[in-house]
Amino acid sequence: MEVALSSRLSLRDKYFDAFARTMIPVYQWLRKNKKPWSVTQAQLQHFPLGSLGHSVHLFLAENQLTLIPRAEFHDIYHVLFGFTTSMEDETAIQFLGVGNGRYSLPWLASCALAVAFYPERWGRFYRAFKKGKSCKPFHHLDWEGLLQEQTLDLKKRLQKS
Known about the structure:
This protein is mostly helical and 161 residues long. The chain contains eight helices and no strands.
């Protein structure tokens, strides 16, 4: 029984991952008027230690990931809010954004599908939603302009007083 359950979870993760990957080009198309960062991934390693830019570089390097043009903020959410690259955390990031006011179709669709795919993870998703709600609005910030800022300072500034 335990083997069947882990296989089923793995299959669900694969389907949800496939959905998420198909949403990336859709999301990029929806953001076609937004310019990708002028800072390259290679340049991030030269940002000061402790800065958001350098923290993003470390996150990407540790996880063998690359920046997604027009969706670079996604990796910042990992860094600032402590999300891993597990499917559960990748999904929880969607709830974080919606909790903070990001109501675009891809984000809402991801949340709706997550609830359908992972009803047993609702508690985790709800906590991420509440985390987004409990922060000052960040979904609209110009993250590229904040790459020189200290990561710890940004974390503090996002907390509601």
